[in-house]
């Protein structure tokens, strides 16, 4: 069962946030279970549709994302993968004409409830983007920026080291923390962005094609890193690289785009959602089969 | 034989080409192995053509090596998925079964050659030919089912195999009375091995049918299990 919603801090006195505090969602390395994780739901998506104005970009998505698993979202361009990913931490709030219908429950709490603080949501549910986008600041400042904004108290040096170690970047940058992050290679910059996301101690990391701008070696490092941090974090990744989805994810969701001939618009639909090995060896839906084998539908 | 079913058009032309090529090759290998088995039956019946059958094993072996190499190349280079992936792993099994069948045809003619100077029992020979005829039909059916993705046909293979097993078990009763005639007994004991080889050929056909069912359904299960005959 998801933990019961708790009153969160820092959301004003009148209407307390109902996002559960993550204190109860264990985090320190000593809490990491030795046995494989149980399927504990983190997100329950229920009949979700996303509109941009009158255009429906995604329709009727229902799926459950479980804790400490890597869930991949795959499908052709325009099938709504990124739109859906951005719903998980309310990034679409920043798009004025975007509107969400249906529900996303985060540990049983409606993420889009008016009382829920979107900033707090984004602290707990971090995001890594397609292109590495470090701030034009030092490596150190990149990491401490988030914790400072979030009002996290603590030894910043420790946070920097811990975050960089978790992102498997510490050994490469420990002697030049005060140097500009822009001097790092693309792969290092992306791991820095992951470290930056980890610095605010999130529970979930959303990744939007995190390796599309990286070479195979840097991609391999990121994939190894995902595997390592999976024991502590829940990861949802959008990828165009099916082999990557097959390699890294536990669960995989395939989306496709329905074309509306009259309006010449495309609406994303969830076709199939299952264990990754099933999706790539014996999918149930013919559309998934056609996509993963590279056939026309 | 039925035509190879048309695959859906593939975005990746190279993979598409490779899969179609392998479809043709496994079909040809099946025909070669089947023909070899048929010739081996004819050879022990007529006491002729032993060397030709043995020589034709090279053709089947060449198919086996070629298919295995090509499957490995496709796996390494094309990252096949789902039914394409299952087709390729099934090919590795099916080509090995066909190669083993060809080896058994060689065994049959080698025995045939050894006993060609001995007297024979026509009744036992009729049983051998009956078993061979059923096994031959099974090879053709299993390869048709594989080529046409015919689950119903593949599921019939274990039933077709039953009379072969029964005849193989019963043939010893016809051989034991030959004990009074040492030359006839020698022939009978050698022919008992032939019977066993034919029974194994039929088993390989059943195994090909299992691969066909896996290719179609994505779930592998043994049709029969000698260690758990009741399941």
Please tag this protein with its features.
heterodimer, A: 297 residues, alpha/beta, Rossmann fold, ten-stranded mixed sheet, 25% strand, disordered N terminus, B: 231 residues, mainly alpha, Methane Monooxygenase Hydroxylase, Chain G, domain 1, 6 helices
Per-chain topology:
The complex is a heterodimer of chains A (297) and B (231).
Chain A: E1 41-52, E2 55-66, E3 70-74, H1 81-87, E4 98-106, E5 109-110, H2 118-124, E6 125-128, H3 139-149, H4 156-166, H5 170-173, H6 186-199, E7 204-208, H7 216-229, E8 234-238, H8 242-248, E9 251-260, E10 265-275, H9 276-281, H10 286-293
Parallel strand pairs in A: 2-10, 3-8, 3-9, 6-7, 7-8
Antiparallel strand pairs in A: 1-2, 1-4, 4-5, 9-10
Helix pairs in contact in A: 3-4, 3-6, 4-6, 6-7
Chain B: H1 13-46, H2 50-78, H3 82-114, H4 122-148, H5 151-175, H6 182-217
Q: Distance between termini of chain B? A: 33 Å
Oligomer: heterodimer
Looking at the overall shape, the CATH architecture of chain B is: Up-down Bundle
**What's the CATH topology name of chain A?**
Rossmann fold
Count of folded domains of chain A: 1
Overall helicity of chain B: over 70%
Task: Supply Rg of chain B.
Answer: 19 Å
The largest chain-to-chain contact, stated as pair and per-chain residue counts, equals: A-B, 15 and 17 residues
Overall domain count of chain B: 1
Helical region count of chain A? 10
Strand content of chain A: 25-35%
Major β-sheet profile of chain A: 10 strands, mixed
- Total E-strand runs of chain B: 0
Summarize the structure in words.
The complex is a heterodimer of chains A (297) and B (231). By secondary structure, chain A is α/β, with parallel strands linked by helices. Chain A has a single domain, classed as P-loop containing nucleotide triphosphate hydrolases (Rossmann fold, 3-Layer(aba) Sandwich), CATH 3.40.50.300. Helices cover 30% and strands 25% of the residues of chain A. Chain A is built from ten helices and ten strands. Chain A has helices spanning 81-87, 118-124, 139-149, 156-166, 170-173, 186-199, 216-229, 242-248, 276-281, 286-293, and strands at 41-52, 55-66, 70-74, 98-106, 109-110, 125-128, 204-208, 234-238, 251-260, 265-275. In chain A, strands 5-4-1-2-10-9-3-8-7-6 form a ten-stranded mixed beta sheet, sandwiched between helices. The radius of gyration of chain A is 19 Å and the shape is globular. The N and C termini of chain A lie far apart (39 Å). Residues 1-36 of chain A have low confidence and may be disordered. By secondary structure, chain B is mainly α. Chain B has a single domain (13-217), classed as Methane Monooxygenase Hydroxylase, Chain G, domain 1, CATH 1.20.58. Chain B has six helices and no strands. Chain B has helices at residues 13-46, 50-78, 82-114, 122-148, 151-175, 182-217. In chain B, helix 2 runs antiparallel to helix 3 (82-114) and helix 3 runs antiparallel to helix 6 (182-217). Chain B is elongated, with a radius of gyration of 19 Å.
